Amino acid sequence: MTTRIDKRFADVKKESRAALVTFTMAGDPDYATSVALIKALPKAGADVIELGMPFTDPMADGPSIQAAGLRALTGGQDMKKTLAMVREFRKDNNETPLVLMGYYNPIYIYGVDRFLADAKAAGVDGLIIVDLPPEEDEELCLPALKAGLNFIRLATPTTDDKRLPAVLANTSGFVYYVSITGITGSAVPDSVKVGNAVGRIKRHTKLPVAVGFGVKSAATAKTIAEGADGVVVGSALIDVLRSTLKDGKATPQTVNAVAAVVSDIAGGVRAARKVAAE
Amino acid sequence: MTVQRPNSFRTGPDERGHFGIYGGRFVAETLMPLVLDLEKAYNEAKADAAFQREMESYQAHYIGRPSSLYFAERLTAHFGGAKIYLKREDLNHTGAHKVNNVLGQIMLAMRMGKKRIIAETGAGMHGVATATLCAKFGLQCIVYMGAVDIERQRPNVLRMRMLGAEVRPVTSGANTLKDAVNEALRDWVTNVADTFYCIGTVVGPHPYPAMVRDFQSVIGRETRAQMQDAEGRLPDSLVACIGGGSNAMGLFHPFLDDPSVAIYGVEAAGHGLDKKHAASVTGGRAGVLHGNRTYLLMNDDGQIEEAHSISAGLDYPGIGPEHAWLHDIGRVKFLSATDDEAVAALQLCSRLEGIIPALESAHALARLPEVAGGKPKDHLVVVNLSGRGDKDLDSVAKYLEGGR
Ligand SMILES: Cc1ncc(COP(=O)(O)O)c(C=O)c1O
């Protein structure tokens, strides 16, 4: 089965470049702005869209994404609305892969089977669930694969060669390499180390490897894009979004300002032409 | 839901950390290898007689164990029913049961070569115990504490600082214990190489709930022997307060397979069960947070709700997974006590016994009218007096002045 994610990474590879994966939080700072934003992202250069499902207790996220989640929840965002956003996005975009990212509890409470059916019907392509390691695959990963959704796993600097096969076993779509040990938005990754780590993962899998955490500028994006199949940018977008808010509310600049950084970073990613794919 | 009654209640968890459907290892990939390392190191230490001997030696000479099992004569007379015994964990060095667990975890951290210790704390008792053992063993200590709790448990903040620990205020979410756990987890994800996370109660990813229970079970083992000496038999009822559930689990676990022993956990009902409270079993549902599946307070969208209790140590929207399981299979009965009832029980115990209990422990005392009152005179009740109340005098005074 070829999914939107598989096809997009294959297409991007034909262009000898890496994919730009953007992360924004569903409902931040309000539903309408957030919908307008994800609709604007593909035109700005996003190849894959990650949409955060807000959660009160995001234990692997730094202050930027924590605050984005709280803004969304305060604005009344919930799982039903997040899925509705995906349906709205799909009304005029059938190509750009969309991945939901977040924590397990809101899905568990929504009901796993119902969630998978509704997500698939809405046009979701994959899931990244931070607090579901392979040890808990029966919870959601296996049912998601059965339902035809990709389950994208995080690999980290602590995932050694012995553990990688277990992490990769039920992973599909792409592998998300977390470039640092830490929370989202913290350090700028060391590009040599990242390159080595991507090489290490690629020895274990044919899946594309996207690298995230700490990518803040077109320049870092370019460096990462030289060694990886995808570059994930999140906190940097959310920081720009926050800087446009007035009293916590969206302003006419909000969507455009975020789209502008995405274009800029997309330029960095595209500047890193790959010499040749292996 | 029909739940199979097992032959023994004391065999859990399974190798994946499950107590029935509860428990598990719901952590980020970065932490998973660390959690597996910890499990391996703990299993080795548990089987190592030298480790156990060393721990017992510190328990005796540093903590002051065994803690006494004290017959509370005037409380007994007051309720006019069962004989009430208090298990005096307040007499431990640092003033609460928390130190039993911290000793075990710090010894394990040293065995694993970890030199940087992080902890979360609510009431500050776990933070003080951690700071104390880090001072004793020369380890760096960082304690995450909600800004609200820093305010209401000031004496413990000063104690931690005096002991050389760094207290980091947490200002995310509700600024209480749940948020302090989040911050500690974020620290651990960031500092994986040298850091040991010393969790203060029976929650978190496997092996924490089982490991903390094992370290606290010294309470129940001593109680068995002491009650045998005092009365020549087992107690009839056990009562303990429940924050995450470590003092309760420590008392209960050695008695789970004795069907004659009735077991009660007391959750914090805060302003009342129909208002803001911290009673996760009574008022919550199964969900996933902080590495385990358990009963949690949350809304219909799976968003965690802020708990409320006058007692900072009970102000947590979850409970240990083993308690969740013991509730479902009916082995432990969960009751609750409001802020008002806990404060009244604290005053009563102070005046009748000359023992100022922690507000946490006062929740257990608050259910004595039902658990002891109306029972025959030869019924034996043990209340876990999990800690001393010095830290709470400010909060209680304010509360009595009407500033709740
Ligand atoms: C004296 C005392 N008792 C009880 C508790 C609650 O924790 P647990 O339920 O883990 O025993 C605390 C927590 O801070 C405490 O300080």
Bin the helical content of chain B: 40-55%
Tell me about the largest β-sheet of chain B: 6 strands, mixed
- Which structural class fits the helix and strand makeup of chain A? alpha/beta
Query: Largest interface here, residues on each chain?
Result: A-B, 42 and 36 residues
Largest sheet strand order of chain A: 5-4-3-2-1-9-8-7-6
- The quaternary structure here is heterodimer
Shape of chain A: globular
CATH class of the largest domain in chain B: Alpha Beta
Shape of chain B: globular
Q: Can you characterise this structure?
A:
The complex is a heterodimer of chains A (278) and B (404). With 278 residues, chain A is of the alpha/beta class. Chain A has a single domain, classed as Aldolase class I (TIM Barrel), CATH 3.20.20. Helix content of chain A is 47%, strand content 14%. Chain A has helices spanning 4-14, 31-44, 63-74, 79-91, 104-110, 112-122, 141-146, 164-169, 191-202, 218-227, 235-244, 254-271, and strands at 19-25, 48-52, 98-102, 126-129, 150-151, 153-155, 175-178, 209-212, 230-233. In chain A, α2 packs across α4, α4 (79-91) packs parallel to α6 (112-122) and α10 (218-227) crosses α12. The longest helix of chain A has 18 residues, at 254-271. The two termini of chain A are 23 Å apart. Chain B folds into two domains: 18-57 and 97-212, Rossmann fold (3-Layer(aba) Sandwich), CATH 3.40.50; 65-96 and 217-402, 3-Layer(aba) Sandwich (Rossmann fold). Chain B has 17 helices and 14 strands. In chain B, α5 (125-137) links the parallel β5 and β6 (140-146). The interface between A and B is large, with 42 and 36 residues. The site of pyridoxal-5'-phosphate has 22 residues of chain B, from α5, α11 and α15. Pyridoxal-5'-phosphate binds at residues 96, 98, 122-123, 125-126, 201, 241-248, 313-314, 358, 360-361, 386-387 of chain B.
